[in-house]
Amino acid sequence: METTNTRKKEGFSGQKAIVIPRKILINQCQKNGVINSLYITDIGYYPKAEFHYRERPNGADQHIIIYCIEGSGKARIKKTELSIEPGEFFIVPIKTPHFYCADENNPWTIYWLHFKGNNANEVVNFLCRQNSGYKGYLQYNEKTLGFFNEMYTQLERGYSIDNLLYSNMCLWHFFSTFMFNDKYISQGKSAKKDEIDKAIDFLSQNLDQILTIEKIASSVHLSVSHFSYLFKKKTGFSAIEYFNHLKIQKACQYILFTNMRINEIALELGFSDPFYFSRLFTRTMNISPNQYRVKRVH
After folding, report:
1. 130, 251, 267, 298: least CB-packed within 10 angstroms?
2. Averaged over 27-35, what is the pLDDT?
3. What is the C-alpha to C-alpha distance for residues 1 and 54, in angstroms, rounded to an integer?
4. Cα dist. 276→238, 244, 266, 269, 281 in Å?
5. How does pLDDT run across 235-279, given as a tens digit for each residue?
6. Residue 190 pLDDT greater than 70, yes or no
7. Three-state helix/strand/coil letters over 184-229
8. How buried is residue 37: exposed, middle or buried, by Cβ count under 10 Å (0-12/13-18/19+)?
9. Which one, of 253, 257, 239, lies nearest residue 285 by Cα?
């Protein structure tokens, strides 16, 4: 359930959000022994989120962490009232009644994340014990935001098993910066991109196009057969199926953050047939585009 005061029709300028399809969560995350202990379900960033307000009387189906880096807001978790200032974060346990909102005069800038997993309760309980409640303080740490951006960037590139593993293993490091902010030291290195990484970049840059497997393979100077083998081996999906996942991910963002009609979104993503787009969306997300627009709450 979402209760809203005045809201901008186009959301918040500069906002980012990814909602991982529930089929992917069930088939790739819940069943994978490496990451089923803790994994991301939704992730996003809202800068200067004027009029941001969320209320869930019955709680959410996932745990939630929200980290404020600028501005202010307030929250209520069960009967606990919280004021949120820069550098503070709060945890909302799964199935717990709550609401939160940005300050009307000084709206917050927040990084937020929904998560689940076999050990998610333990993570939440640890943070609540450590901070004697739902709210804590995190001294500004570039590593924290670096891990957040790593997770977001990888998930934005699609749902290959490599991306899911990498992102959700980063999630443990992300939480460790909240748990041990005074001790945290880490160094990262940029990985060199191979042909499949470059192909995914090509797909991401051409979401408004209808691409053939021949054109995708040609973009990285590989034969169709060799490219198809390498792509499936690395991602677990065919290139076209992966491309469609990226398109649907972008469609979700259009639905969440704009007033574009479904047929307009279809055209924006290269689908001349809006009915085919709706079927593809429904097959991927287990919900129709129109239902998704009504139901989704972050």
Report:
1. 130
2. 95
3. 8
4. 19, 12, 9, 12, 9
5. 999 999 999 999 999 999 999 999 999 999 999 999 999 999 999
6. no
7. CCCCCCCCCCCHHHHHHHHHHCCCCCCCCHHHHHHHCCCCHHHHHH
8. middle
9. 253
Distances (CA, A) of 200 to 18, 22, 27, 243, 273: 17, 22, 22, 8, 24
CA distance 92 to 136: 12
Are the beta carbons of 242 and 158 closer than 8 angstroms?
yes
Local structure of 141: helix, strand or coil: coil
Domain ranges of the chain: 16-179, 195-295
Please name the CATH architecture into which domain 16-179 falls. Answer: Sandwich (2.60)
Residue 76: strand pairing partners: 81, 99
**Cα–Cα distance for residue pair 10/144, rounded to 1 Å:** 28
What's the CATH number for 195-295? 1.10.10.60
Mean pLDDT of the chain: 91
The residue with greater pLDDT, 9 or 212, is 212
Q: Are the beta carbons of 82 and 56 closer than 8 angstroms? A: no
Pairing mode, strands 135-137 and 109-116: unpaired
| pLDDT 10s digits, 121-169 | 999 999 999 999 999 999 877 889 999 999 999 999 999 999 999 999 9
Nearest to 195 by CA among 219, 177, 179: 219
183 vs 75, more confident: 75
How many whole angstroms separate alpha carbon 94 and alpha carbon 75? 15
Q: Is the pLDDT of residue 94 over 80?
A: yes
End-to-end CA distance of the chain: 10
